[in-house]
Design a protein that fits this description.
The chain is of the alpha+beta class. 29% of the residues lie in helices and 32% in strands. The structure holds the ligand C=C(O[C@@H]1C=C(C(=O)O)C=C[C@H]1O)C(=O)O. The site of the ligand C=C(O[C@@H]1C=C(C(=O)O)C=C[C@H]1O)C(=O)O has 18 residues, from β11, β15 and β23. Belongs to the isochorismate synthase family.
Length: 452
């Protein structure tokens, strides 16, 4: 398969098959550099599928329209997406720098048996799109890319979008929040306590070691949410988090600012991490340090976190020759701090990033261990539909490189309502009341930005 990396044209070879829009024709991508354009304004005027992806190291991507669509359901969904991706990207012809190359953006539902229902209407068990227009910004500049199925069409689209975007504003205010009318937790305190106690009984019986239980918060807004503006505000407050949005036609917009990388793959280099165990931020430096020390010293957190590290290591062993687990440390975010262990590996050649996604999802940072008992407990006790929450969200390219975050600190926005999601790891000595309070901390990043 051609690998659209480096400057210059990648020669066409082979052909795409029927799984891409423009069936049977290879994708052609043309790019040119463009001055400052407001990504938020570009998305606001776009219709159809819209995506955004941004990383802590300064890469920002937005895309709209679709030149190829990949969807799958059931237990083979990762394989199916990979097969459709191979067909869609086969012989891709990209003229431009690597940063502007065509990418497939999308995600998976947490469960493979996902049945879309409110607020997840329109979200399948796995959907990816290769947008027909992409803006890519790094510290070095901004690139506009048009993706189509012929040189003429891609070049024409590129010029026409260049003119339209160059006429638009270079910046747009990220404004203030839409204001909150009302909030409702979908899980009552009694249901939550019962759920945690069910998990604790299963742990005491020895069938379960750890499970992450989550809940949802329905928020009625005073005015509709401008999601790109909200993500821009989140960038300022949470600079070390990802930011993403995915809107499929008339569906709601799934968006968030997750602190957790599921996987980043470039060639055979893979980066992932264990992020599990949480504490609030302190009011003073001393209080903050003390909370961080307690997080690192706590026996409960050490066990909870260790399960995640060990499981990731085991899951990677089938794919990687060399796995390097870094020191356990604290990752500080504006309103919460986490126990964090970066992990790197060298993959055996020939793997697609989706191989790693499939091997890792769900890590026990959002699922549990053993996986079967954890999934059963989640199904038995949770009172809402996880949909794409806590599941892989990200992108991959024609060469099988890509990056995925864990879709936490996230929500679905529809008109004048947003549903937020948050969960906590439950282990042997978890206390239902403490866990209830900790969940609130995880709603905060987005909830704070919804206030006026
Ligand atoms: C499940 C969430 O967060 C996960 C659970 C954590 C914990 O139990 O301490 C910490 C980080 C995340 O891996 C969430 O934010 O919804």
């Amino acid at each position: 398969m051609d690998r659209p990396s480096g400057q210059g044209r990648v020669d066409a070879s082979g052909r795409a098959t029927a799984s891409a829009t423009g069936a049977g024709r290879r994708l052609v991508s043309r790019s040119r550099s463009i001055g400052d354009v407001s990504f938020g304004t570009a998305l606001e005027h776009a219709s159809g599928t819209r995506v955004q992806w941004a990383t802590a190291d300064g890469l920002e991507l937005v895309g709209w329209g679709e030149t190829a669509r990949l969807t799958a359901s059931g237990p083979d969904r990762f394989d199916e997406i990979r097969a459709q991706a191979t067909a869609a990207f086969d012989g891709v012809d990209h003229d431009g720098p690597a940063v502007a190359r065509p990418r497939a953006f999308g995600g998976f539902a947490f469960h493979d048996g996902h049945e879309p229902r409110d607020p997840w209407t329109g979200f399948t068990a796995a959907t990816f799109v290769v947008p027909s227009v992409i803006l890519a910004r790094t510290d070095e500049g901004t690139w506009l890319t048009a993706v189509d199925t012929s040189d003429d069409d891609a070049t024409r689209a590129l010029e026409s979008w260049y003119d339209r975007l160059s006429d638009g504003p270079a910046m747009r205010s990220s404004g203030t929040g839409p204001g909150i009318d009302d909030t409702r937790r979908t899980t009552s305190r009694e249901q939550w306590t019962e759920g945690v106690e069910t998990a604790l009984e299963r742990i005491a019986d020895g069938v379960l070691e750890k499970v992450v239980l989550a809940q949802a918060l329905e928020v009625d807004l005073e005015t509709p949410l401008d999601v790109p503006a909200c993500l821009e505000r989140l960038r300022r407050r949470y600079p070390n988090c990802y930011r993403f949005l995915f809107r499929d036609g008339e569906s709601g917009t799934f968006f968030g600012a997750p602190p957790e990388r599921l996987v980043g793959k470039s060639g055979t280099d893979v980066r992932t991490e264990a992020l599990a165990g949480s504490a609030p931020r302190g009011d003073s430096r001393e209080a903050d340090e003390e909370l961080a020390d307690r997080l690192l010293d706590s026996e409960k957190i050490r066990r909870e976190h260790g399960i995640v590290v060990d499981t990731i290591r085991n899951q990677l062993e089938a794919l990687a020759a060399d796995i390097r687990v870094d020191e356990r440390r604290v990752k500080r975010l504006a309103t919460i701090q986490h126990c964090w262990t970066p992990i790197e590996a060298t993959l055996e050649a020939g793997h697609h990033v989706l191989d790693v996604v499939e091997a890792l999802h769900p890590t026990p940072a959002v699922g549990g261990i053993p996986p079967g008992a954890a999934w059963e407990t989640i199904r038995d006790v949770e009172t809402f539909d996880r949909g794409w929450y806590a599941a892989p969200i990200g992108w991959f390219d024609a060469g099988g490189d890509g990056e995925f975050a864990v879709g936490i600190r996230s929500g679905v926005a529809r008109e004048d309502a947003v549903t937020l999601f948050a969960g906590n790891g439950i282990v042997a000595d978890s206390d239902p009341d403490d866990e209830w309070d900790e969940v609130v901390l995880k709603y905060r990043p987005i909830l704070d930005e919804l206030r006026e």
